[in-house]
Amino acid sequence: MPSGDAKTVVAILAVPRLYALDVSIPAHVFGQHAGYEVIVCGDDDFDFVDDSGDSSSYVDVAAGIRPTHPLAAMARADLVLIPGYENPHLPVPAHYLDALRASVERGARIVAVCTGVFALAASGTLNGKTATTYWKYTELLRTMHPEVDVVENRLFVEDGAILTSAGAGAGLDVCLHIVQADFGAAVADEVAKDVVVTPPRNGNEPQYAETLSPSRADLRATREWVIRNIGSPITVQQMADHSFLSRRTFIRRFVRETGMPPMHWVARQRLTGARRLLEESDWSVEKIAGATGFGTAANFRSIFRREVGVTPSAYRKLHTQGDSSRPREEERLPSG
């Protein structure tokens, strides 16, 4: 992410046979925030496929997805996004792969949505790295590129500066994940509202469930109860009791619905709440630690630095510089 007032340049690579939806989603998400400049790079004579998979459909003015910049413009991008495309077993032009390699070598962040991962793998930049893709193509990816560690049934995978995701829905999640990393959880939530979706899901969540749970097994009410009581001590047994399930059954269903163990999910909610308070309030670290269930400030600092990579104070400074609209602590406390 550029420093100061410079915008983060997001280059969407217009690969041949691309899916229009995989271009329009990131263009819309990143276009919702003034901190990003979105460009579409590629040759002028490329084709796209519509949602029905009709590869005979070509981009026209109504589709609005012609390249806005030549391929060479990728050289100034801070983030390069590769949309999914039809027939991923077919080669991508060599000069596209050269541009991808150059982007990785100069340290740009790379996002491959759906079958876009095949272009990245073909460039050789995924060798030895972990990646995922739409579940229908994981075996093909593994067969064509055995040097890539392919992960099954994940929304998205982040390996250093490279992120790979499942289909278009997961592409939306990974874009919001990037907005959150760049500008904070509160901004990501606002962007999610603008595009009328729920806040970003975690990459560890599954793409699909092997079996559908009956409505009575939906644990959403318990998850909402946890969030309402995030400042209190919470145990797996309490969550199971709230769900009227045995501990073993609760854990099994919770993992199936969220893709992670219950206490792992609780820890993530605590971190999300803490990040929002650091961004939106001037509460002390001690107060935030208590409000989000971390207990002591020392415990909060230790966990936050381990999971986020910076101290709470550094995170606050990064996401609130020049923000005079942040409510003061006394304005948030009840009167009387």
Account of the 3D structure:
With 336 residues, the protein is an alpha/beta fold. It has helices at 20-31, 94-105, 116-122, 138-144, 168-183, 185-194, 220-228, 236-242, 247-258, 262-280, 285-291, 297-308, 312-320, 329-332; strands spanning 8-13, 18-19, 36-41, 48-49, 79-82, 109-113, 130-131, 149-150, 156-159, 162-165. The protein has a six-stranded mixed β-sheet, with helices on both faces. A two-stranded parallel sheet has the order 2-4. Helix 1 runs parallel beside helix 5 (168-183) and helix 11 (285-291) packs across helix 12. The longest helix has 19 residues, at 262-280.
> What structural class results from the helix and strand content?
alpha/beta
How far apart the termini lie comes to: 44 Å
Mean pLDDT: 81
Beta content: 5-15%
**Mind telling me the C-alpha Rg?**
21 Å
How many strands, what sense, and barrel or not for the largest sheet? 6 strands, mixed
**Beta-strand segment tally:** 10
Strand order of the largest sheet: 3-1-5-6-10-9
Order of helices and strands: EEHEEEHEHEHEEEHHHHHHHHHH
Number of helices: 14
Q: Note poorly predicted spans.
A: 47-64, 205-217, 322-336
Question: What would you call the shape?
Answer: globular
Helical residue percent?
A: 40-55%
